[in-house]
Amino acid sequence: MQRTVPVISSQQKFNAILVAALCVITAGSYVTLSGLLTSQLIEELGWSSLNITFGITVNMILYGATAPFAIHLMEKYGIKKIVILSLVTLCAGALVCTINSKIIFNLAWGILVGLGCGVLTMSFGALFARSWFEKTGLPTGILTASSVTGQFVLLPMWAKLANEFGWRAPLIGCIVLTLITLLVICLLLNERHSAVRTVTAYNIKPNSTFADVFINLKGFVKNKKFWVIALAFGMCGATTNGLMWSSFTPAATLEGISVADASYLLLIVGVLNIPGTIGAGWLSDRVNKQALLAVIFFLRGASLIWLPFILSQPVGWELIAFAVVFGVFDVATVPPVINLCNHIFGDQGPSAFSWINVAHQVGAGLVAFLGGLIAFMTGSYFVLWFIAGGICFIAALIVLSPYHGEN
């Protein structure tokens, strides 16, 4: 749905999306750091995974639960103020985490880093795109790809820093990246370079209250389309984050593939996310979003059904081809889902998406638990890939429902 936005130049829009992309990359660089920090703290300081579980769990909860309230704050006080506050919070959290204390680490990583990352999820991308652009598909595709860049592409660099300089090095690296982002915000996110005051004045809702967050949610849950989209997006989370982040590497190692090779395959997935997501964003402005989502889910499901038959082989063209195909369709659902939310809920689209994204995280958590349970009971992840593929096929049918989207 095309909507009216303030008249600003193409250069100002470019500068704004550049700043937003850097913000999302920065937050993404923290998101996948938990696993690396866990292994490094166990190896270097003798901590156990149990010593860090509380902080990581709180971090994940806040990562999903913060977004609806962050959207409210951005709409009330302006995007720039809340983004700067979140980045300062991330800096403070990472800095405090460098103190050698289990209690301090858990509190800082769980609360400060969790809140900071939770503000800059794709819900932020949805609001940002709707504030600066008439058509939101391509901008949300770019910002989703930026999130993946921060999560996957930077992780090998953080791992190398940790191996060479110790567990504090990736934290310091994230702090430096955050400071650079704050500097870029000061240089570009202003009226001259990105029309931020004009856009803020046009979109701000100064009289809104926290009660509006729940009033809006009450309205969303009465809409059948909200539940259908949430169910489909929960299935999306179940077959992406909940599957590949937690189960792929241990499944690969059980089949004799080294951790390094498994990480290499995940890196391919992360890199291919970028063109796949940008392409899906571009298409979501031009074709039926329901049909696009159905195709994405079907092809993702087909790749997952194929995986158990090739995972026992040495890394060759088959596994690389899987990584390429899965990578293209991994998070390609995000731009069309955001576009659907904007189409259905109008100005409340970003707020609706922030709650729908909670379903994504719930789906991810359930399948992460299911994968561990299947591996514990059978000694293999073989069955998991068929279950995940089936979930994708069901999601492909759900998104074609008349209660879902444009119809």
From TrEMBL:
List the residue ranges forming a coiled coil, or say none. none
**CDD domains the record matches:** MFS_YcxA_like
| Keyword field | Membrane, Transmembrane, Transmembrane helix
Instruction: Give the source's domain of life in one word.
Output: Bacteria
Stored Pfam families: MFS_1
InterPro entries tied to this protein:
MFS (IPR011701), MFS_dom (IPR020846), MFS_trans_sf (IPR036259), Proton-linked_MCT (IPR050327)
Q: Extract the Gene3D superfamilies matched here.
A: MFS general substrate transporter like domains
A molecular function (GO) term: transmembrane transporter activity
What is the protein's name according to its record?
Predicted arabinose efflux permease, MFS family
Q: Which residues form the Major facilitator superfamily (MFS) profile domain?
A: 16-407
Transmembrane segments in this chain: where?
A: 16-37, 49-70, 82-101, 107-129, 165-189, 226-244, 264-284, 291-311, 317-340, 352-376, 382-403
